[in-house]
Amino acid sequence: MAVATCIVDNIRLNPADDISNGIWSISGEGVGAIAETDIVYQGVTAISRKISLPGRGIYYTHDSEVDMSATSSTSTCLFKVNITNYSTAPTTADGGISIWCGKDVSNNYESVYLGSDAYPIGGGWVLVPFAPSSAWASIKGSPPPLDSITGFGIQVNAAFSAVSKSENVVIDAIDVGTGIYISGGTGLDSPGTFDDIVLFDQGNLSNRWGYVTKNDDVISVYGRIGIGFTDRNAASGFGGQQSTRFEDAGNIIVFPDGLMGSNFSGIDIETGTGSTESFIYIENCTFIGISGGLGVVNTRPNIWVSGNQVGYCTFFNNRFVRFREFCEVDANIQLDVVDCLFDDIERYEHYAGYIDGCVFNGAPQIPPNVGMLTCFTRNVERISNCTFAGLGTEGHAIEIQVAGSYDFSGNKFIGYAGNPGSNLVEGSGDPHAAILNSSGGLVTLNIVGEGDCPSIRNIGSGSTTIILNSKVDDFST
Predict the structure, then answer these.
(1) 385 is in which domain, residue-wise?
(2) Which end of the chain has fewer beta carbons closer than 10 Å to its terminal beta carbon, N or C?
């Protein structure tokens, strides 16, 4: 037995609990920064300053270098900022308010993010993940190498339209990391839940890193949630495992956008490796990637499920919106995905999971010769009773990478091009056909149940035969 326990993968560089704790500085003329006790996100104190003119800001200088290179577990800083009179702040187009990491206000990697037009209408604290290694960042002056960052700050780039009555720019704890991991919950102990993670982060005033929060029954995730992991391995992204039971139902979980790199947002799940065995059951939840995914960096979230023939993970009747990827990491994964909706999804990587009764609405930007669902093994038959809708003009519903003969049961295809039926011609077929054969060999699909006869594209030396009700179709191409 083991109680469900949360671990944070985070380094708190400064809690912002006192102006004398570390080196807090101001940029530009005016009244200096003060210890703020009225407006705080975590702990009992933040750092604030009254600002109305451009060239003013607040920044913190750390006493040692921080590695914020792209592959580091400290590549991203989760800023906590509050502009109390945000409606009078400059717009984003006018320069807004920058956040930066580097050396000082003149030598850094910065990005404009906050402005009166981008600020939440209700005001209050804004969480901004920023990776200086990402394409969001602009180089200012001569910043230090990304593995030698010491400065973290906010900077006003244009004048406020009105002077505030009091301190109006507030910054709280400086945190760098990846997210929160939960394990345990086995035996007679209660299984872990998403709300346990919220309680560990937002529910503890001394913690409040900002990775997992909840407001109006909606959970927001900045970074990653790990289920079945006890820590994070900086090299692989996955760390130690512990047997885990995790059960959740009915939650709405969103992944807000930010100035982070790819793969910053998402969920990692481990079902077991032999010495550990985890059971995860998630039903009736809605997962929404608010990230657009089409900007200078693809910031859409992803879900990675790993495991090796032990434990089990089940997703039942869930909805996944605007995800970059749902990935079965291991070839022997024990996974059921049943009656789920994938809306505007870019890619599903399939190895061994059972996918039944799901609806896949592909993202418009899926390119040619790429399948929305890519099957890397001979487990094509584990995809059944699903509906695939091609919303773009290129790309495919399913890509088959291993030659063989497969029963194909109950699958339907909407919005794809090309003639349905066998395609025995190598290197041919419509670039928006339903099935892509990239195996380099012969694929035979035995259509059973109420499934549609799909159109085919072969690349390389592959060819594809369709058999309807044990009879080769009569409209081969």
Answers:
(1) 177-472
(2) N
